[in-house]
Design brief:
mainly alpha; globular; 0% strand; 255 residues
């Protein structure tokens, strides 16, 4: 299993797309801090990169890589290797490569310009987001053998979590503005890993006051050690559950 992970990791790290992704992240992160006189402003810029660019690249690259590696996967299946080990090796290889690219591109500038709890939190969140969307890519690619459909599912998944989910939440807030639904919004955030990540970073930046009464409720829950633990557990579940579903489908799928 370790040998397969090593082969996959080396193959991915040689990819021009991954190298370009790392360079783009580095340029955006270093320039964000260099052009701003306040590190907090630079952190907000990097936050937008983490919430939009990192998920999109992670889910698209992982989905395309899995479809392009179909012959390699079939070759491994012809060997006396358990399907579970093959799928886990692919997941670990892709997750490690995307996490490493994020850390080199955005993590190092964060450690240099923001060597505090906020910087460390953003690095952890960015790594978790990378792993979560790699897991969602595995689920997208195993649902259908059609490459175009699989990539379409991946893009729609990113679009839903990055844009549509927030639009739906805002719609509910406006429609039910006469009712005290602020506490219910805390539970609703559990259905979006990007929202969980955004709230954690904003609370650590201490800008929750700009979010009004809802922000105060978020801070009362997510600002505590219990809330922080629950949010990280939810993010971990977002990485584990989609992968386990894809693993079950892969074990039962006739390739």
């Amino acid at each position: 299993m370790n040998r397969i992970i090593k082969i996959i990791l080396i193959d991915i790290l040689k990819s021009k797309i991954v190298v370009a992704y790392t360079i783009i992240l580095a340029v955006l992160a270093w320039s964000s801090f260099a052009l701003e006189d306040n590190s907090a402003k630079g952190i907000l810029t990097v936050l937008n990169v983490i919430l939009f660019t990192v998920p999109l690249v992670s889910i698209l690259f992982a989905t395309i890589y899995l479809y392009n590696s179909s012959e390699f996967i079939e070759l491994l299946l012809s060997q006396p290797i358990k399907r579970r080990k093959i799928w886990l090796s692919l997941f670990f290889g892709l997750s490690l490569s995307m996490t490493l690219s994020f850390f080199v591109g955005a993590g190092i500038p964060l450690l240099v310009f923001s060597p505090d709890n906020v910087g460390v939190m953003m690095i952890i969140i960015g790594c978790l987001i990378s792993i979560i969307f790699v897991a969602l890519a595995f689920l997208s690619s195993i649902i259908t053998r059609d490459k175009a459909k699989g990539i379409g599912i991946a893009i729609m998944t990113w679009l839903y979590f990055a844009l549509l989910f927030d639009g739906m939440v805002l719609f509910l807030l406006f429609q039910l503005s006469d009712y005290p639904i602020e506490k219910a919004m805390v539970a609703v955030t559990a259905f979006s890993p990007i929202d969980l990540a955004r709230i954690q970073i904003l609370l650590h930046l201490d800008v929750s006051a700009m979010m009004g009464y809802t922000g105060a409720i978020f801070k009362d829950f997510f600002g505590t050690s219990t809330g922080l633990t629950i949010s990280f557990l939810l993010l971990c579940l977002w990485a584990i559950v989609p992968f386990l579903i894809s693993l079950k489908k892969f074990n039962n799928k006739d390739l």
